[in-house]
Amino acid sequence: MSRRLTNQFKHRITIQAQVGEQNENGFSSQEWQDRHHLWAAIKTLRGREYHEAATTQNENTVRFVVRYTAGITSDMRIQYKDRTFEIVSVINDDERNVTMTIVAKEVM
């Protein structure tokens, strides 16, 4: 991996998965559990990407670029500082298993 790309991974994010537990009354409670702590480059949308997102009411859509990590899906979410993002898509960049781009929408 190039040194330039490595220097861009300066934001610490947490990938969380939703897990369900059944209590003694048979009710299932859903909670989020930390799965991965990753360094990420955060890319805001620009140009055509921004306008396409705005037309679908996704004004707070962000791209997180991370080192390739197997098992991250769109059923998960991202915690970054005091913000929460729903994962919209996960893309294995160039299908090389080196980096991946996670497109996520901020939860308001």
Can you walk me through this structure?
By secondary structure, this protein is mainly beta. The chain has one domain (3-106): Thrombin, subunit H (Beta Barrel). The protein is built from two helices and six strands. It has helices at residues 3-8, 47-55; strands at residues 11-22, 28-44, 61-67, 77-80, 83-92, 99-106. A six-stranded antiparallel β-barrel has the order 1-2-3-6-5-4. The chain is globular. The model has no long low-confidence stretch (mean pLDDT 84). InterPro entries: Phage_SPP1_head-tail_adaptor (IPR008767), SSP1_head-tail_sf (IPR038666). It comes from Anoxybacillus mongoliensis. It holds the Pfam family Phage_HCP. This is SPP1 family predicted phage head-tail adaptor.
| Main β-sheet, spatial strand arrangement | 1-2-3-6-5-4
* Uncertain spans: none
- Domains (count): 1
Instruction: Return the CATH topology.
Output: Thrombin, subunit H
| Overall strand count | 6
Using the CA coordinates, give the radius of gyration: 16 Å
- Mean pLDDT equals 84
Give the fraction of residues assigned to helices: 10-25%
SS field, number of helical segments: 2
Spell out the helices and strands N to C: HEEHEEEE
Largest pleated sheet: 6 strands, antiparallel, barrel
Q: Give the CA-based shape.
A: globular
- The CATH superfamily is identified as Bacteriophage SPP1 head-tail adaptor protein
The CATH architecture assignment turns out to be: Beta Barrel
Structure classification: mainly beta
Q: Can you tell me the CATH class?
A: Mainly Beta
Kindly report how far apart the N and C termini lie.
Answer: 35 Å
Beta-strand residue fraction: over 45%
